[in-house]
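ok so I'm stuck.
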Amino acid sequence: MQVDWFLSVNEEMSAYPSSSTTLLPPATQPAEIGSTSRFAYRVGEISFGVTAKAGLRIALDPGLMEFEADSPACDVEITAEWAEELKMPLTRPAFESGGLWSAFQEDGGTAFYFQTSYLGESPYKRAWFNRDFSRGNVKLLKRYFDPELPVYPLEYPLDELLMIHRLALGEGAEIHACGVVTADGAGRLFVGHSGAGKSTTSRLWLRQPGSCVLSDDRIILRLRDGKPVMYGTPWHGDAGLAAQACAPVNRILLLEHGERNEILSLDPARATAELFARAFVPYHSPAGLAHTLDFLEKITARLPVALFRFVPDGSAVEEILRAAG
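replied:
not stuck anymore, here's the structure
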């Protein structure tokens, strides 16, 4: 793929992260963020629109400003409103995160309840979505918020949860990875768990003239006209790199620290398993898991995947460039 293709795709996207919170105390919400009755944003060529009902002021999270879109009708449409009372369901959850949220099967769709001991037993937010995650509703427990300040209803981790579930319908996958585009337009996806060296790798490639980093921690991987494409996301890592851009993927490398730089090819079956282990998936959804696995099998059938043991210095970049030469 050439640089022209890369630029043209990103021009198309431009035509169309790190989250703040409005939970008390009020000082956690930036006062300078303007309010609106609707906002929209686009990540990975999937658009999300949020419309507030009367009495609620909303604002797009500052970390998503680069991904803001002017879309009167989005792929995913969500209404947001105040609630005077919210209660946890009496039924057993489909999945418990062990943190802020739990997922329940409700009203023919999926409901996420957000709760923290800091605020009490009542959930501070309920977000419900239909089966194909094209429509949803977010209720915010009013007494936990300052009504004079605008709210970002999809406050992290909800915005990322929504993306993960939408992709798991067979539209792609979110991967624990950094995405690098070199000056010649070649796209390399460096995949790794936390601590594998994604942010380090991103910083090393930024020193390379003409290189662009789409994200240093989370990448959306999709097929476009049958070809693998990676997209930047607002959910960045330690390096704080997030770009509203995309590029074709020419190679996938699994990061692992080593005593020397070496690239070891993986067969498609192992490559699929390794990618799946580093993908964000809805564990409570058998269909979502199956769709994600099938998608990753298509990716590894189209692209070479290798284990990249590397030394965290400039020699790692040189090894990748040498292998491509």
